[in-house]
Amino acid sequence: MLAGIGLRPVAAAGLPDNLGPLQDRAGLFTAEQKTQLKQDIAAKQHLRFYVLTIASLDGRDGKDYAKAVYDHWGLAARDVLLVISQQERQVELSFNNQELQRAVENGLDKAVDGGVSEQTLNGLLQATFVPLARDGDIQRGIQYTIQVLDALGESLSPEAPAVPGAAGEAAEGSTAPQSAQERQPAEPINWGPFKTFIGNVAKALLYAATAIVLIVAAVRLLRRWRRGAAKLQDIREVREASGRTMVELSQAVERISPLAFMSQGRTARAAQELEQELSELLVAAEAQSKGEPFAHVLQTARLEEQLSRATHELEMLKRAADQVVPAAQELADQEREVPRTVERLRSESRVGLAAYEELTALTEGPVEPVQREFRELDELLVKAEEHAVFDVLTASDWAARAERAMSALASMLQELMDHARYCQAYPELEREARDDVRQVMTEHNLYEREQELFQPIEESRKLAPQLLQAIRRAETIPARSLRQRIDQLFSQAREQAHRLAELQRSNNDKTSILEEALHSIDQFVQHLDQQFFRLSNEYKKSLWQGMEKKFLQLKNEQSAALAELERGRERQARQQFAKAKDIFDDLAMGIKQLEKELQACEREMMKLDMDKQACLEQFAADQQSYVELREWIDAGDVLILAEGGLEAEYRLVEQTEQQFREAESGWPCDLQHLRKQGALYGQAIALTREAYTKLRDKKELAVVTLDRYSVLFYRIVDQTTGMFYKMGRKRVFVKLHDGIQELIARGLYDDALEECKELQRFIDTVAVKAEFANRARRYEYQSKYLGASSSSGTTGATREYVKAEQPRQQPKKPASGDSPFNWGASAGRASSSTSWSKSTSSASDSSANSSSSSSNDSSGSASSSGSASWGSSSSSERSSGSASYDGGGKGSGGGKGQSSGSAKW
């Protein structure tokens, strides 16, 4: 029955279908090797290779079989088929290309690197495939063979598939112009060249339209053909997958059929159900692998329908096969696995019996629970062997129960053996523990704690008989607990001995460290006693009285620490190590705190000396700065008068210096008073420096003010009228100027500044005269050149003249604290503009532009905005902080709110 089911698909198919470039029906390659071969085949550029492996030729001729497969697959001229038979150990090479045949016959020597001289295909295979296949490396043999053939295929002429209708179209295109020329008459046409041109254009358009239609049709046809070809390929792949599924189902049927025929009970029912399901799936897979005939490549809708139906059927088939095939394989595997399991368990049982004999020898008597477990295990194995002949599933259940029983028995037996060996070794373990404890006790003189150290070992001796009884009753959990408790007691005895020894050693080390620390503290306290004795003789008592109280308290703490150290030594001598450890730990923390407080006390003592030294250093620095100040004053050009100079400041510096010297030499030293006198000395020097700086600034102010007023006067006096007036004003100015210079030379800098104010008022009167002269000249110019232009202009000029005739209000004198420079600037702002010649020029420019008198005057005032050394103009129409002298009449000053802009072309 199994043979009939397995051979029906092969007999129906006859030859294998083309399922791709590599079909390993003989199972020669692994999954990785298949992937590598497919990649190598796809990488070839000149030929297309197909490799088919089969288990056997079944008596057929290899060449005929290869040719039949080649024809059945419909391979083309550049396709090469390689058929490998596993049983016959035979390889066949088949192709249908004369050029490739000639290339093989003529170029074989070059293709195989000069190592082969045969001229036949057999010689090619003998040279490439056979040597590697004999070594068992069929994969490399295939790779080498297709490599050589692909190299020979490089010399083949390229494929040139004929396109239907292409020749006809080319012929028509080449003869159409000739026909047109033949139709042209030999003589000129009466229609004229225009009609000829129109005809040619119409024919060209007709040809172009025809070509476009043909191209569009060809493109659409080509796209449809490509879609159809892709769907055909998908359908082939689906059918190939169905074929592979059919092979899996056939193999599963072959394995399950003997069980269905020979088994009984549960196994027979399960095997028959699986066989029936597999047979049904096998028939369905065979029908699907054949399928209905392929539709034409251009019938895309039908191809889509076939692909959808085939894909759905394949999914259903795979889903069913994925459930049935593993179940069949598992059932078939159980038939072979049950006898092996029974045999393995019997072998393990024999080993366990040998271990049980050893256990009885260790416990000096039988262990009844273990014997019962062995008898139950033997009964389970007998039942598994009885059912293994006809009912594999039932036998598998009995074998599983036996395996679980064997596992539990082996685990229990192994644990009991370990506990029994431990019981036998207990006397030796006890002796080792006693020796270890006794050695530690002897090395560290711990005889007073002997009973405490050996108490855990004595307790373990009571637990050893209990452990032996638990082993004989096969009570693994109590035996495990007793053994762990015995181990803990041994460890406790050793750890307790080592802990006491370590505590003793640690306390001894701490005692040494604490003694050294207290010795260092004692030396430090003696040093501080000396420092306090020195401070009490050098400084005032209020400075060190608080430190003395704190130091006495620290000395008391030192005495308490010494007493605590003696108490700890006493506990250590009595071997009360824990109490001694607590005392030493607390004492160590107290000693650290005591050291910190003593160091803080020392820093307070040192701070007194440092503060005193800082005062002395500051005084020395102030002295040096005072010497440098006196040298600077003596080297300067400032004349210091006796009645109003720096004598008071000098006396104050000398007085404070004397007071500091007295405070320094006084006993006991009052540090606060010394600091105060040092600060007063520094303040006196600062006052001296400040007074000299004021004198120097007054002199520089007087000199600079006089120079600026001189420049200003000569600039203004040139703008007035009258030679005698100018000469008189200059004489008065020279007199005032020389007087101020004399005051500066005599050191009367305050008087010189007051005279500068008088000189300022004199310059103001000259400025008024200059302004009147400028307005008169401006009025004369307007009357001469603009008298007939408009009455409004004359009225404006007259109004300005009248305003100029009115006496100017004198500027308010500055307060006593104001600087002469500020006062001069205020006077300049109260007066009119000082650039008189520039204002006249601005007025002339405004007249040339035919503007009104009032606006010209306004522009002139605005354009003459403030001299750099005198101050800003008093005009209310000024629109900026400064104005150019050259642009007065052209509106550069402007009125209120005027803005400027620029642009580039």
How are the SSEs ordered, and which strands pair?
Elements: H1 2-13, E1 22-24, H2 31-43, E2 48-54, H3 62-73, E3 79-85, E4 90-95, H4 98-106, H5 108-111, H6 121-128, H7 130-134, H8 138-152, H9 166-183, H10 193-262, H11 265-290, H12 300-363, H13 368-387, H14 392-444, H15 450-472, H16 476-538, H17 541-573, H18 577-635, H19 647-665, H20 671-717, H21 723-746, H22 749-786, H23 791-805, H24 820-830, H25 836-848, H26 853-863
Parallel strand pairs: 1-2, 2-3
Antiparallel strand pairs: 3-4
Task: Record keyword descriptors for this entry.
4-stranded mixed sheet; disordered N terminus; Diaminopimelate Epimerase, Chain A, domain 1; 905 residues; mainly alpha
Describe this structure in words.
- It is a single chain.
- Among the domains are: 2-155, Diaminopimelate Epimerase, Chain A, domain 1 (Roll), CATH 3.10.310.50; 205-335; 339-414, no CATH class; 696-890, no CATH class.
- The chain contains 26 helices and 4 strands.
- It has helices at residues 2-13, 31-43, 62-73, 98-106, 108-111, 121-128, 130-134, 138-152, 166-183, 193-262, 265-290, 300-363, 368-387, 392-444, 450-472, 476-538, 541-573, 577-635, 647-665, 671-717, 723-746, 749-786, 791-805, 820-830, 836-848, 853-863, and strands spanning 22-24, 48-54, 79-85, 90-95.
- Strand 3 (79-85) and strand 4 (90-95) form a beta hairpin.
- Helix 15 (450-472) packs antiparallel against helix 16 and helix 21 runs antiparallel to helix 22.
